[in-house]
Write a structure and sequence with these properties.
Oligomer: single chain
Largest sheet: 2 strands, antiparallel
CATH topology of one domain: Growth Hormone, Chain: A
Keywords: Membrane, Transmembrane, Transmembrane helix
Structural class: mainly alpha
Radius of gyration: 34 Å
Strand content: under 5%
Distance between the termini: 38 Å
Protein name: MFS transporter
Number of helices: 39
CATH superfamily of one domain: MFS general substrate transporter like domains
Strand order of the largest sheet: 1-2
Organism: Sphingopyxis witflariensis
Length: about 850
């Protein structure tokens, strides 16, 4: 039963307590507001009249100016939990005051103006407060599933409040409903305090909270800067402003029509019925429709629904007018605006700068809406005696067209705004352009001179552009021989003397790329590019697997510089599924830069194949195992390969122009902060479309339950892993099959691995299992398993752990080192070697950083 409810409402396991508690909070807030609005609107129209609504529209900004100013200051100085409690206490006091005043002064018109302004203030204030509060506890992906359900609770609360007024309007006086509202607010306070104690708020970004500007002045400066630098913020504000202009016009239109010929009690009953009907509609939309709409069409496309609805409603008023048009305007305001537009606005606010999202929302909703009321009120006060309802409807049609145009702009700006929001607070240490020094020609010449004189600092600053060689033309062969014998200093001379004819030098350089110091490695890459041997591309890609990210970027740029003759080799490298993803990534970057048309021709097929294989890997890795270390490592390796496949897929889509900056996207997607991850997923969904995103999301968030793997399943997975091309999977598969197959069967299954290019680590593993090599020390698989259990390294990828295992020694080194145990043997890894491996594996570096300082960095 619970599973059916989860599928129906798209709720994950364990979310119901949090959902129900926040939903009940929204229900109580809106039930009180529903009672107040149903009774208050009827009282105002009966005692004052719809023709005075423009005055309310004009006075609302003055009230909201005071409210927003106080609320914004308090939001900076106090927590959101304290603001909720304070607001509820104010509702209690305000309700009791209105109960006393309305009961004693009777029909004083001034009091009904105050009542209407009080309702307008809390209509905006409670809406802003609830969603600011709820937004602090959910990321955007959870919001897209759950916020419609919260809106459904709110709609149900409003409907319940309206029905109470509808059923009891003949028996309870208007001021009695104000006292009832105060009682509901008082009953909500314990629930609000419980929410703050039980649930943990989510930070807006990975940046430390202490880095955010404090104080009113700093917040106002950030707000002003946001309007100056963020076109999305301006477009969103314009959208809300024009929406509110049309909403005020719609309220004036339907109020003018519906008040004719009705008493206060009849109006109260009518508005109670209309509010109840509209909120039942809202309830259905929020529960069953909105989250499916936004999942299918996306946040930025749903933004068109209300503008089109208003355009059609004012068109109906213009063409026919009357009672039907008034009901349509009421439902456009209280149904479509509430159930669809307000829900979507909650999601649109996620793309504004995260540091000022709450104060910005408070200012926009607290001042933008009243300013729209002021303009609408001033206009209606002037036009009410000069224009009829049909002419006002024509103005509404024009405003509807303008709103559609603004939403078109908002739709275009939304993906870039989400990307910018992910980028804030993220430091791209991997971009060499941020750290590479630049010199004037005179400074460069001076540095070259100092470097040739032996100045180490000058040599370091010049990097790969420096060459200390003074060799002559006849020394090339001698230098190649010296380099082949391990003399890395020979590279300096080769950098000066080698030409495009020295293609025999490229394989040697490629083989030694991982052995050169960093400055010489860049020099070797530049030399390979200068020689320009495209036939060596497969070997270059293979050698790049062990290099650091900055070196791989340099190789991609170098390969792109080889020209069109490199395209066939790059295409072959990109499509070779036995290659490591880092190698295929280099080929993809080089191909996209060299020939986007060729890259784009491969894109759809590559993405589809990667997603299909990743889904199969995830489903296989979802099985539970209680077996050997080799079995655990195999299942973990499959999960990691699926994750790497997704990362590679997103990289391809980014190169294809469908997604924003890939490095930023991956860092955000792997962040420990749910809001940052949610923003990354939203950027992906906005870029690739619904169908492709569903395939990606099914891999990122698999829904199936883990099942126990049978022996047949394990053997089949191990046999498939033999052909994976990843030595960790292959080594684990060898150990698994050795334990489960008879000797003849094992020999037959593993015979296809024996070839000239078989990795040395697998060769030793196979010889050990066959009893052809005796070695008392732990094998590489045992070392990787031991490292995967050490707290400082356990969260790193197996690929990083494998490189660490390669640096393990059976004797204590003469420098600082870490100590571990594997298969009953001691091993040590020098700290210098750990740092060198970490420089090539960002995941390992970030895991080590987390262990050192305990903060939640992205990884």
């Amino acid at each position: 039963m619970i599973d059916r409810l989860n599928r129906l409402f798209r709720v994950n396991r364990g979310e119901w307590p949090k959902l129900v508690q926040f939903g009940l909070f929204g229900f109580l807030l809106q039930m009180g507001l529903g009672i107040g609005f149903s009774a208050g609107d009827a009282a105002f129209l009966s005692h004052v009249g719809a023709d005075k609504l423009p005055i309310i529209f004009m006075l609302t900004p003055l009230v909201m100016l005071v409210y927003t100013g106080i609320f914004s200051v308090l939001m900076v100085r106090f927590s959101i939990d304290q603001m909720v409690t304070t607001t509820l206490l104010l509702l209690v006091i305000g309700g009791l005051l209105l109960w006393a005043l309305l009961g004693s002064t009777g029909g004083n018109p001034t009091l009904y103006y105050a009542l209407k302004l009080y309702l307008a203030m809390w209509y905006i204030g409670l809406y802003s407060l609830f969603w600011n509060y709820t937004d602090a506890y959910f990321d955007i992906q959870d919001a897209k599933r759950l916020f419609p359900l919260f809106a459904a609770f709110c709609a149900l609360g409003t409907a319940a409040g309206a029905m109470i007024v509808n059923l009891t309007a003949a028996a309870i006086p208007i001021h009695g409903f104000m006292a009832l509202w105060a009682a509901i607010a008082l009953a909500t306070i314990p629930l609000a305090r419980m929410l703050g104690r039980r649930w943990q708020q989510i930070a807006e970004s990975d940046a430390d909270a202490g880095d955010e500007p404090q104080g009113v002045g700093a917040q106002l400066a950030l707000l002003a800067n946001s309007f100056r630098t963020s076109r999305y913020t301006v477009a969103l504000t314009a959208t809300l402003f024009v929406t509110l202009l049309m909403t005020n016009l719609a309220e004036f239109q339907y109020s003018t029509v519906l008040q004719v010929g009705r008493s206060e009690a009849e109006l109260a009953a009518l508005f109670g019925a209309l509010y109840a009907a509209s909120n039942i509609f809202n309830l259905i939309v929020c529960l069953f429709v909105f989250n499916r709409l936004v999942s299918r069409f996306g946040v930025r496309n749903i933004a068109f629904i209300l503008p089109l609805t208003y355009f059609a409603t004012f068109g109906l008023f213009f063409l026919s007018g009357g009672y039907a048009a008034a009901i349509a305007a009421f439902f456009a305001y209280h149904a479509v605006l509430t159930s669809i537009e307000y829900n979507n606005q909650n999601l649109l606010f996620n793309a504004v700068p995260s540091a000022i999202k709450r104060p910005l929302r408070t200012v926009i909703e607290g001042m933008c809406e009243p300013l729209a009321s002021l303009i609408a009120g001033a206009f209606l006060l002037y036009a009410a005696t000069r224009l009829d309802l049909r002419e006002l409807s024509g103005i509404g049609v024009i405003l509807g067209a303008a709103l559609i145009a603004v939403v078109v702009l908002l739709r275009q700006l939304y993906p870039a705004a989400m990307t910018a929001n992910m980028r804030r607070g993220w430091l791209n240490f991997g971009d060499p352009a941020l750290t590479a020094p630049t010199f004037t020609p005179d400074a460069a010449a001076r540095l070259q001179s100092d470097a040739r004189s032996g100045d180490r600092a000058a040599q370091s600053l010049l990097g790969p552009t420096y060459s200390a060689s003074t060799a002559s033309e006849g020394d090339v062969d001698a230098l190649i021989m010296a380099l082949r014998n391990g003399d890395d200093s020979a590279l300096d001379g080769l950098h000066d003397l080698a030409t495009a004819d020295d293609i025999h030098l490229v394989p040697l350089l490629a083989d030694r790329l991982g052995l050169f110091p960093r400055s010489q490695r860049q020099m070797a890459i530049a030399l390979i590019g200068r020689i320009g041997d495209v036939e060596a591309i497969p070997g270059i890609l293979t050698a790049a697997r062990t290099l650091a990210p900055r070196d791989r970027r340099a190789i991609a740029a170098m390969l792109a510089g080889l020209g069109d003759t490199a395209i066939p080799h790059l295409v072959a490298g990109l499509r070779d599924r036995r290659r490591d993803y880092s190698e295929r990534s280099i080929a993809a970057h080089a191909l996209a830069e060299l020939s986007y048309a060729q890259f784009n021709a491969q894109l759809e097929r590559l993405v589809d194949r990667e997603l299909t294989d990743a889904r199969a890997l995830i489903e296989g890795a979802a099985s539970t195992v209680d077996g050997s270390a080799a079995l655990t490592l195999l299942f973990r390796a499959r999960r990691e390969r699926a994750e790497a496949s997704i990362d590679f897929t997103l990289e391809l889509l980014a190169l294809g122009g469908l997604l924003p900056n890939f490095d930023l996207l991956i860092v955000s997607l792997h962040s420990s902060n749910p809001k940052v991850r949610g923003n990354a997923l939203e950027a992906i969904e906005s870029g690739v479309g619904h169908a492709l995103f569903r395939k990606i999301d099914a891999i990122l968030h698999p829904r199936g339950e883990a099942t126990s793997a049978t022996e047949v399943d394990i053997v089949a997975l191990a046999e498939a892993a033999l052909d994976s091309g990843r030595w960790i999977e292959t080594a684990a598969a060898l150990a698994i099959l050795h334990d489960r197959l008879p000797p003849t069967g094992f020999a037959r299954q593993t015979s296809r691995l024996v070839r000239a290019d078989m990795p040395a680590v697998l060769r030793r593993q196979l010889l050990r299992l066959l009893g052809l090599e005796n070695d008392d020390g732990p094998d590489m698989l045992a070392l990787v398993d031991a490292l995967s259990r050490m707290p400082g390294f356990s969260a790193a990828t197996l690929r990083a752990l494998a490189d660490l295992a390669a640096a393990a020694r059976a004797v204590i080194p003469d420098r600082p080192a870490i100590h571990g145990h594997a298969a009953g043997h001691d091993f040590w890894i020098a700290n210098d070697d750990i740092m060198e491996v970490a420089s090539r594996h960002p995941d390992l570096a970030l895991v080590m950083l987390r262990v050192q300082d305990g903060r939640a960095h992205a990884a």
